[in-house]
Amino acid sequence: MQAALVLTVILSSLLGAFAQKPHHCKSPPYLQGKLAVDFPEGKTMVYEQFYYDALEERIRVVAAGKEGEHDVFMDRLLLFREKVYYDIIYHNKTCTKNSLDAAFVPIAIPFDAKHRAQVVLGSLSAPAEGLLVNNWVGSDAEIKANYSLTFTEFGCIPVVTLYHIDGVGHFLSSFFDMIIGIGDPSALIPPAFCFSNNTVERRDGKATNFFTALL
Amino acid sequence: MQAALVLTVILSSLLGAFAQKPHHCKSPPYLQGKLAVDFPEGKTMVYEQFYYDALEERIRVVAAGKEGEHDVFMDRLLLFREKVYYDIIYHNKTCTKNSLDAAFVPIAIPFDAKHRAQVVLGSLSAPAEGLLVNNWVGSDAEIKANYSLTFTEFGCIPVVTLYHIDGVGHFLSSFFDMIIGIGDPSALIPPAFCFSNNTVERRDGKATNFFTALL
């Protein structure tokens, strides 16, 4: 009887220890938020508002920023299941429809990423003063990139991602104001004028995972 | 009677609105934590463990990192009230005692800093998944620097500070694992061998506020 009790205690401690290890997590299926992207050499800085739906495999990104001296603006809706993406221009109600070859890759820590550190941003000494995050590193052979991903321990929300792409440079994305859920579902549906005759169709589209789709 | 009630409601809403505005805060008097400092042009990267006591005006910094190809290491105890700082070398039990001209400047948002943004790191959609922070910008005439300071809304804990010093470059400090309090008070007392005959005294010391003292 006592031996069984000891065995139970040991087993549950072991299982507890395994459970406590940071795990390769996947973000919630519905997310919206903002991010600031710093492109190679600090020449381009872009602010983006995005909507992410992993169930129906749709992403909407509205980006505005500066590339050197030029203003840049982009409003893109990626529909991975339909294998198309739309570039939407509201002010003259036109659309460009492009083919999209890539498979939808959900926001997640890749299975082969290595856990580097768990740290607290701010402090856990008092409630609401700190945030527990994990940093993961790895490389993506497909896009020839090394990455560093920092996600929250609870909820698996992205905080900072850094991609270093061979021969291109660094892409630093800082995520903020993230909401679990979608506040405006219509943001993930092409506007009516995208189905009119004004819509130009192209077949040169290419995009990969969520992060590189936002670049 | 009704007019008085309306006035009370209006006044309390107004006062509420003022109270809700992010305020120029001061960090807790006892803090310890870690920071990663990225020096100009990314040539030097230093990790620091620090202990901060604003009541007795003492700071201890242990820094290790790389400057180009060279390893750098520093263990410094700054005693602002006594106007001295010690550079401590444990492995051969020697000390350098230096004069310290600067006034102690507590960790705080300077009174003339401008509030730029309040954002959530992670998400407030669920408990423990997000952190509310404020970003402040301004300039410091004394050290000829522009700065961007990101502190937690609750607790006034530093998260990221960026100093751009004229003619020198950027200093990016990322704070983490912050604890309110001091776990090891002896870290703020010079070790016994600093009072022996081996201690060299110098008079060329110079340091300014908390952040530049850590640089």
What would the average pLDDT of chain A be, to the nearest integer?
86
The structural class of chain A is: mainly beta
Q: Please report the first level of CATH classification, the CATH class of chain A.
A: Mainly Beta
Trace the largest sheet of chain A across and list its strands. Answer: 7-8-9-10-11-1-2-3-4-5-6-12
> What percentage of the residues of chain A does DSSP assign to strands (E)?
over 45%
Which parts of chain A are unreliable, with pLDDT below 50 for 5 consecutive residues or more?
none
Strand segment tally of chain A: 12
CATH superfamily name of chain A?
Lipoprotein localisation LolA/LolB/LppX
From the alpha carbons, calculate the radius of gyration of chain A and give it in angstroms.
Answer: 21 Å
| Domain tally of chain A | 1
Cα distance spanning the termini of chain A: 61 Å
* CATH topology grouping of chain A: outer membrane lipoprotein receptor (LolB), chain A
- Main sheet specs of chain A: 12 strands, mixed
CATH 2nd-level architecture of chain A: Clam
Shape of chain A: globular
Helix count of chain A, per DSSP? Answer: 2
Order of helices and strands of chain A: HEEEEEEEEEEEEH
- Tell me the helix content of chain A: 10-25%
- Most extensive interface, residues per chain? A-B, 30 and 30 residues
Describe the secondary-structure layout.
The structure is a homodimer of 215-residue chains.
Chain A: H1 2-20, E1 30-38, E2 44-53, E3 58-67, E4 70-79, E5 84-89, E6 94-99, E7 114-122, E8 130-140, E9 145-152, E10 158-165, E11 169-180, E12 200-202, H2 210-213
